[in-house]
TrEMBL record:
Domain RAP residue range list: 613-670
UniProt cross-references to Pfam families, sorted A to Z: FAST_1, RAP
Originating species: Crocuta crocuta
Lineage: Eukaryota, Metazoa, Chordata, Craniata, Vertebrata
Subcellular location, principal: mitochondrion
Taxonomy, superkingdom: Eukaryota
One example GO MF annotation: RNA binding
Entries under PANTHER family matching the protein: FAST KINASE DOMAIN-CONTAINING PROTEIN 2, MITOCHONDRIAL (PTHR21228:SF1), FAST LEU-RICH DOMAIN-CONTAINING (PTHR21228)
Encoding gene per record: Fastkd2
UniProt KW keywords: Mitochondrion
InterPro entries attached to this UniProt entry: FAST_kinase, FAST_Leu-rich, RAP
Protein name: FAKD2 protein
Length: 689
């Protein structure tokens, strides 16, 4: 094997000497490079590589790594004033596993310059002579050293094989540090004279050290923050590619963790494809649930659906072996590959609920974020998490509870106990909230339409007072968001509203940012000031026209009204002032005994003895998750329709879909004619189906 490697290196060295160079310098292993090789004679290289390749045919997986050696597109190294050269695209991996680092190469760096470098020849015999035969124990090293520089000092005194032990111990030490200390130590590490030497030795040893040591070294390098496009990282990625057939379950777990932590690039994408193939081949042989979950995260959202289902089936078969930690992390694993397995999520939810006490904050956040990404709604799971937070709220920071409430709002979940307790904590210390926190709090409470039984007014005034102190620092969009949230809650702080209605702020909102969204919120403000706040002066805003979208009323409800009332006794798609729309309108007499045809009431629409009825067909998304309380915008619309003289009947689309037309007729008849629905002409209760 040594003779073959030496012969290959000698041949490549002979070929490299024929390449004309303009500059010669030693390239640091931390030099930024994508390892794109620029040759002056493409035909010579091709013939040489093909002749040297011989019978060294690797297994099928290695042929997947096409263009693996070309890491940077042609455009990446074009710079102003520098001519470009034709770059050879290698369509197959044509070099053996042991990479030659003792030959001359011409590399294209990130700044576009072609850099020629030369490294001294070194083979395994030289390496053995230069290093100590007794390797250092990285666990002992990480216990004896207190800083990254200590490890580098020991390495500089007597470097030993393998160098992976030094890198692993450095990452172990870094994990024990605070963020500030870690940042300082990393800077000292980069400036240490032995660090470059350690990187060079790691590159040389990668050819011959054990495969799992290469992977652990690469993991430590990535976690230590060494830039991904350096020669060191890209070289190790190439070595990992060429030796991927040596990957067992342990190596597959480490490799998946590495790729999950790295940004997409040519070599990373190639390795991810390799992991998908290995996972497809070895999924039934995986013994550890942790390895299975790491692989699920690594394969990503673009993995074939057949592979996702195979991983799902493997996880279902291992359910009996799931630990509490496994069940908690399965949400994140499924979200990472965008696979919504209801059965698996339901089973893991039961385990999370049963072991919720002591669950870390980060895990709770991860579970809720994954449920949001997967559009998974489990009322029992959310209630279990919220009940746990309500019981232990004294140990949580105010901003942690707010973060949970924000996620609950995105899921449409309203937990009254947690929201009431949060209001009390805010009122005890309103100064602890920043401007962004206040805006988030207002959005959560207005969207979920939540009001405290006793302290609603005090809470709203406290939020308005705190936000008023930021008037000189708040952006126009944030001010609009806050005022719109107050409008949904039927509270109108005039100081904030007057600031928002200044011409320059309105003009900024209608000419920059999300103009359509800003215009929608300004329409809400205008409607509230007209209908809810009679004492405020009317505003005349010139807003962009609403897009004309076709409206299709619920066909089943239309058929039911036609069967119950007959044609001419109801209207479809009724447009009202203030940009409101209702699906159906019915008009009745004051005695609730009959429905009036529209031809006879057109002239007396505003008469006191006419009751107007608005039938709204609403989707599930307009309600909170428990389907017992309308969300903020629907609640405001119902409030405004009542002010305009309507009685509102809510028809739930998700219930209507399961009913026959005759059942819908029975429901509408009960709501329109029953004495309970209309006790008096001005009571205007809301009825729902």
């Amino acid at each position: 094997m040594i003779n073959r490697a030496s012969s290959f290196l000698w041949n490549l060295r002979q070929f490299s000497t024929a390449v004309p160079t303009s500059r010669t310098m030693r390239l640091s292993p931390l030099g930024f490079s994508r390892l794109k090789v620029v040759f002056s004679n493409n035909s010579n290289l091709r013939s040489f590589l093909l002749s040297d390749f011989g019978n060294r045919v690797q297994s099928s997986i290695r042929y997947l790594f096409q263009d693996a050696l070309i890491l940077k597109s042609r455009d990446d190294f074009q710079t102003k004033g520098i001519s470009t050269e034709t770059v050879l695209t290698v369509t197959r991996v044509l070099c053996p596993r042991r990479l030659p680092f003792d030959s001359k190469h011409s590399l294209a760096s990130d700044d576009g310059l072609k850099i020629n470098f030369y490294q001294e020849a070194s083979n395994e015999d030289v390496l053995t002579k230069e290093t100590k035969p007794t390797p250092v124990n990285y666990r002992k090293l990480s216990q004896e050293c207190s800083s990254l520089s200590d490890v580098l000092d020991i390495f500089s005194e007597a470097p030993t094989f393998p160098s992976s032990n030094y890198l692993s111990s450095m990452w172990t030490i870094a994990k024990r540090m605070s963020e500030d200390q870690k940042r300082i130590e990393k800077q000292l590490m980069f400036n240490h004279p032995a660090f470059s030497q350690l990187c060079e030795q790691m590159m040389r040893e990668a050819k011959i050290m054990r495969y799992d040591h290469v992977l652990f070294s690469l993991l430590a390098i990535v976690k230590l923050g060494i830039p991904q496009n350096t020669l060191l990282v890209q070289t190790l990625l190439r070595v990992v590619q060429e030796r991927i057939n040596e990957c067992d379950e342990k190596c597959l777990s480490v490799l998946s963790t590495i790729l999950e932590a790295m940004e997409p690039c040519k070599n990373v994408d190639v390795l991810r494809a390799g992991v998908r193939i290995l996972a497809n081949q070895q999924v039934w042989k995986i013994e550890r649930v942790f390895t299975l979950q790491v692989v699920m995260k690594c394969v990503g959202k673009d993995a074939p659906i057949a592979l996702k289902r195979k991983l799902e089936m493997k996880a279902l078969r291992e359910l009996d072996r799931f630990s509490d930690l496994n069940s908690q992390h399965m949400f994140e694993a499924l979200a990472a590959m965008n696979h919504r397995s209801i059965t698996l999520l339901n089973e893991c939810s039961k385990m999370v609920i049963g072991n919720i006490h002591g669950c870390p904050f980060k895990v709770l956040i991860s579970i809720l974020q994954s449920c949001r990404d997967l559009q998974y709604r489990n009322l029992d799971l959310f209630k279990g998490i919220a009940d746990y937070v309500a019981v232990t709220i004294d140990i949580w920071k105010l901003k942690q509870v707010l973060f949970l409430l924000i996620l609950f709002e995105k899921l449409g979940f309203r937990h009254t106990d947690v929201m009431d307790l949060f209001i009390r904590k805010v009122m005890d210390d309103p100064a602890s909230l920043t401007m962004k926190n206040i805006i988030s709090v207002l959005h959560v409470y207005s969207s979920l339409n939540h009001f405290h039984k006793c302290h609603t007014q005090e809470f709203q005034e406290a939020m308005a007072s705190s936000l008023t102190g930021y008037l000189h620092h708040i952006s126009s969009e944030n001010l609009l968001n806050a005022v719109c949230s107050f409008c949904l809650m039927n509270h109108f702080p005039l100081g904030l509203i007057n600031q928002l209605l200044q011409k320059d702020i309105i003009n900024e909102l209608l000419t920059s940012g999300d103009i359509e969204r800003n215009a929608h919120k300004l329409r809400i403000l205008a409607a509230c000031l007209k209908l809810d706040v009679s004492c405020h002066k009317a505003i005349d805003l010139v807003l962009p026209p609403l897009p004309s979208t076709p409206l299709y009323p619920n066909a089943k409800v239309a058929d039911a009204l036609s069967s119950l009332l007959g044609e001419g006794y109801f209207l479809k798609n009724v447009h009202l002032p203030h940009n409101y729309h209702i699906d159906f309108e019915v008009r009745m007499d004051i005695n609730r005994s009959q429905v009036l045809p529209f031809s006879s009431v057109d002239v007396i629409t505003a008469a006191a003895d006419i009751q107007r009825v608005a039938v709204l067909c609403v989707p599930r998304s307009t309600y909170c998750l428990d389907l017992t309380r309308p969300r903020g915008y629907l609640a405001m619309k119902m409030r405004h329709l009542k002010i305009m003289g309507f009685h509102v009947i809510l028809v739930h689309n998700w219930k209507i879909e399961r009913l026959e037309v005759k059942d819908i007729v029975t429901f509408l008849k009960t709501e329109l004619y029953s004495a309970k629905a209309f006790p008096t002409a001005d009571a205007n209760p809301q009825s729902t189906c």
